[in-house]
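Lab notebook page, bench 4
Experiment: in silico fold of construct C2
Operator: M.H.
Input chain length: 98 residues
Purpose: comparison with the prior construct
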Amino acid sequence: METITKEKIANLLKERLGFSSLICEEITNSIFSEILDLSLTNKKLVLPNFGKFQVHSKSKRPGLNLKTREALEIEPRKVLRFNPSNFLKQKINSHELA
């Protein structure tokens, strides 16, 4: 399985749209920046037929240092979760990716 990077996405845009590399990199960076900003300010970002990004708060919980076997406490934190839409799940499972 090949890893898709922002650079590869920008190159795909360049091939399909015929814009310059610089413009395609700027478009790609702007899209990912907006997804992050909107997710952080709204706590939930829904993209129809793709999925939703949602900020989730994890509470403080017990943990274990695997090297020393010492018990420790994992601090509370926020994580960004992605849930694919049913449409995207069906596309992936039917192997109709283009």
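Observations: The longest strand covers residues 51-58. The beta strands are 44-47, 51-58, 61-64, 71-74, 77-84.
Next step: discuss at group meeting.
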